[in-house]
């Protein structure tokens, strides 16, 4: 029997589910192995039991918690899809203010239906079995994690930094331009796509397991950059995470 | 009646339509859009100008390119950063890619199941494999435009203040051109498919707003034009467009002094049909679509006309890029002062405004975003209210389907469109 798979979303841009959709021809091949039984963006149906639930977005409202618990209850495996689900992502950028203040700032009023709490990752509410980091996720990484799950293996994320992929691809180092880059401490798996695009790493895939902070501080010093500058960048996608 | 609408974030999520009816009379008919407020405008406060577009792209996965580009344009106008002509052309090409992919997703995955009588396109995997493959092939080609120019289809990585941080290789552009040409037979088949359907008859006078089409079809620009004949500067958007509270709702809707209005494919076509590409005009006739028509169900046809139009424009843009050779695509001026500006763009679903104020340190002080779906909501509701009385004697299933089709025709947002409606008949 085909594995029963569902996609769910909470607060987020749904770019991660769209990345799955964008697998296009590969998606057709995936559909020979699995059955999509819930995918709100594309289907009207719902299902009772799931083998794997991929959940995108952050938890912001009391009702979200209950809905997530129900998804957890009927799913064998639950995977956090993308950085909003994994660590709060950009949704958490307003965490330095209370939701009341945010509502005042944006709406000029504090209205009951706008009630939210500080955005939280899924793991604040339920047990998360696996996670696919990134803003948005990388489609190929999604496929390899799905493949591992279908083979009843434990999918693993790269334990090395974006710098490794960047060096392998022989991209010029951002620091040489005097540009802050989070490549040295950010988990690889994106093939350094932002550096390939002429930009720098903003850390959307979160921290590697054992970031080597002292050499990193040295790099910053050598290039005349400050810890505050790097933390400012780090907080764009990682407000909810510990600081390196 | 209650409409919960958070116009500040993308409206992606659940929407409910509530119809209150007693003794054959409709006492209330309204659309409830329920989405978690994410407070983007507040989160942008205090951010450096170099981070704003990256953050605000995350408002919406489907139209992240439009949000990125309009954000960059607003910041560039506020901080007086020039964008080289070749970068502007690349930005147009990138916009084409996003509109084509968003429209194709809507046409094949959202609208088509209604017309073929299936719950989702996945139900046709076996019976009509060719159709599903074609949908995915076409979508892939559109995404390839975004990939080649923007670095990836969602949340682009090459767009930056002053232009682009990386350019597509000429060889990549040539390959992309071949792929677009190869997609033309698939587009023909798509036109054939959609010209066979019977679209519900319904029409209502409504104003249509889009960016001014001067010598090209609406896309980027400084002037907003209306089907009423009025034009106004983008920077005066707050005088043209009033956001208001509905009597029964605390959420904001939008109107001009003439009332509710529509934005998006049909609005662009209505005001800009003279600038359609030759292939676009041809498709317009093949679909028997009157560009000045007022049937919102035909938004679907307008979207398909645009897919073909923008594909043709994309081919021309690639030719222009290849023929003109490599020119500057990035201006690296460092802003010296703060400033305030508004920019607008035609996103797949219509007019999108971003307005920013920066202080002299280059930190954002205030931001305001007006998204297309928020502008269409009042028009959708008024359509629903007019459409409903004629449908009340139909079986509930029929009624539900028809109302869903109407709302989907506006393509209010990706996620709303398939699992949109919980219709409460009270």
List keywords for this structure.
A: 244 residues, alpha/beta, five-stranded parallel β-sheet, 10 helices, globular, B: 426 residues, alpha+beta, four-stranded mixed β-sheet, 46% helix
Please tell me about this protein's structure:
The complex is a heterodimer of chains A (244) and B (426). Chain A has 244 residues and is α/β, with parallel strands linked by helices. In chain A, 36% of the residues lie in helices and 12% in strands. In chain A, helix 3 (62-73) links the parallel strand 3 and strand 4. The longest helix of chain A is centred in the first third of the chain and has 12 residues, at 62-73. Chain A is globular, with a radius of gyration of 19 Å. The termini of chain A are far apart. Chain B has 426 residues and is α+β, with helices and mostly antiparallel strands. In chain B, the strands form five sheets. Chain B has a four-stranded mixed beta sheet with strand order 8-7-5-11. In chain B, strands 6-12-13-14 form a four-stranded antiparallel beta sheet. A three-stranded mixed beta sheet of chain B has the order 2-1-15, covered by helices on one side. Chain B starts with 13 loop residues before the first strand and ends with a strand. Chain B is globular, with a radius of gyration of 21 Å. The model of chain B is unreliable at 1-13 and 414-426 (pLDDT under 50). At the A-B interface, helix 1, helix 2, helix 5, helix 8 and helix 10 of A face helix 1, helix 2, helix 5 and helix 14 of B.
